[in-house]
Every structure is written in C-alpha cells, then in structure tokens.
Amino acid sequence: MNISDKLSSPNWIVFQLIEKCNLRCKMCYQWGDTGSYHEKEKLTTLSFKHVKKIIKDCAGTKPTFGLFGGEPFLHPNVFEIIELIIDQGCYLYAATNGTLIEKYAQELVDSKINRLWVSIDGPQEINDLQRGNGVYKRVMKGIDKLTKLKKATGSKNPELGITYIVTPNNAEHIEDFFFNHINLDDFAGVSIEMQNFATVDNHLDYIEVLNSEFKLKTMAPIASGLVQDPSIFASLDIDRITEQIHKVKILCDSKQIILNTSPKTVSTDNYKNYFSAQWDKMEDRKSHCVFPFIQAEVTATGDVVGCHTFYDLPMGNIYNTDFLDIWNGERWQNLRKFIRKELFSICTSCCSYYYNPSSNY
Predict the structure, then answer these.
(1) What are the DSSP calls for 242-273, one per residue?
(2) What whole-number distance in Å separates Cα of residue 261 and Cα of residue 257?
(3) Which range marks the domain in which residue 297 is found?
(4) Which of 139, 122, 23, 131 is nearest to 71 (CA)?
(5) Is residue 270 in a domain?
(6) pLDDT tens-place string over residues 308-336
(7) Are 131 and 97 contacting, i.e. CB atoms less than 8 angstroms apart?
(8) In this structure, what are the phi and psi dihedrals at residue 116, rounded to the nearest 5 degrees?
(9) Residue 267 falls inside a structural domain
(10) 3-state secondary structure of 351
C-alpha cells in the first residue's frame, strides 16, 4: 500500500530518543525514587535509521515533532534528527533537563530548532533538592550562554520555555522563582503543571482493562511509576498555590509570554480535587481524550503508543512494522473505539488530558 492510500499521518509525532538520563529527579515517574526506570538493567536508544524513515514518510503533512527522553541530547544523532525535521519545514520542540544546553549552545542556535522546554523546579536550593547538587547552576549557565549567542547572531530560535512541575517540595516557591530567580524576558513560554500521579486502584483497574479489552498479559509496570498515595499532598497549601499561579499569570501577560497550566483551570477547588484524587469533581474533567486520534509517540524501544501515559499499551513496534501501518492498524482502531466509549482509569494522571486541544474526531 502506498502512503497516499493511507489515512493522513498524525498531527503530532513525539520521539523518546533515549531512555538514558543524566539526572535522578526524585519525583520523576520514570527516574524518580519509585520510577519505573529506576532499577531498569538495560537502557535503549531509538534507531536513527528508523527515526529518519518516519520523518520522511510523514513530513508531507507537516506534523509537529517533539523530542524527549530520558535526556534527548544524550542521543548520538540528535542534531542530525533536528536538521532533518527542520529541513522538512516542520515545527520541532525538545523537552530537556537543561544540563547540556551550555555544551551544545552553538549547535542549538545553528540548528534552528523551534523551542526548548527546560525543566526547572524552583530556586537553586529547591531545584537541587529534587535534581541534584549543582544542577541549577549548570542549567542557568546554559540558558545564559544560549541567550547571549542568540542575541549576538540575531537568532530567534530556539525559543525557550520553562516547565515547572508543582510538587510538595516546591509548591511554596512558585512566585519567588518566577519573580526573583529567572529573567522571563528570555523566555517565550511557561508551563506550570501539577505533579502527575495515579492511585493504586487506578493502576489495578488499568491492568484489568489492558488484559480484558486488549488481550495483554501485563502488570503495567511502566504505569506503576505513577502510583502515589494522595496523602503525600495533604500538607499542600492549595490556596497559596492558586494565589501564586494567578500572580505568575499576570506577570506573563504583562510580558506577552504564553502561560500553560495543567490542569487548565486555576482554582482552589480544582486543585484540591486534583491532589485528593477526586478527579470526577474537577472542572477540567472530560468524557474523552483527543490524543490517540492526533498523536503518536515512539518510545526508545521502538514501541508506538497513543499517549505519553500508555507505554504499557503498545500499538506496534517500528522494528517490525511500518510506522504508518501501525497508525492505521486494527489495534489502533480498537484503541480509538475504546476511547470514544470511556477513558482509562489512569487518563486523569496525564497532563495532556487536562489541556486537550479541540477536535471534531
């Protein structure tokens, strides 16, 4: 079958380039203290040959591409991948912990990648508590070098964005960080997201659905990294979190910086329901999710999945099957039929679920 005979490719294609990470962020559901990759013996790297084929097969419809890991800039061919995507005229972003920005600052400016989303967890003491001693200074040195190079060359790209994940460790420091520790004039976007988590019951229900509806024999080990007892959030001052985010929004608006929040609705009640796992009461709750209809994610092992949360539910593997055949295959059609009827129990653990784009699927 020719590509032209198939349905259009995804609007959004994300590559997990490498499982390897050069940090051990305590709260990360992959690399954290209870993360699913924490004790993993064998780490994998996505094949450049196969990435290249996917890009060329899908570039005609101009999808948005995303790169992440692990740490995507540990992939040996990352700048070849960036060059290929940019040469195809597609929008490209990468999510990074920021520790390699200084090393690759010139290459990043030369590459013309559209945006870097840099994960920073707060002021130096707080950030390093979660990410390791000295990490904050490394990230800030990288941002400073990159910003100076952009100004010297007159380059707009890469635009910079900050991803701030709100956890029990840094929830009191949101306002302080954005007002006193970072120069927002150097940034085009800010994303403030609540820590993802699922309950034990969510995970058990997910396992049951995967085995009964999709005929898998799995204990959903990757999703297990999301499991947390909601009691760890009991000490959060939700009123204060809400107040801080509203202040950051006013600051971003004054500088014409885009602020994304997840959950989208910034309110005390919404956050209380989120952190107490009362997701059925949330203002942002939906009866559907659009991402399996518009997005595909390729993991470092070559598995293709319909969502960042669904690594335990592969639709196929690019080392065995052509990417577009997977995208249009029976297994993916079954996933879409299921999602039209009901959500998975762990969908509420996914930030994207609370910030879905509109769609008429």
Answers:
(1) HHHHHHHHHHHHHTT-EEEEESSS--HHHHHH
(2) 13
(3) 12-354
(4) 23
(5) yes
(6) 888 999 999 999 999 999 999 999 999 99
(7) yes
(8) -110, 125
(9) yes
(10) helix
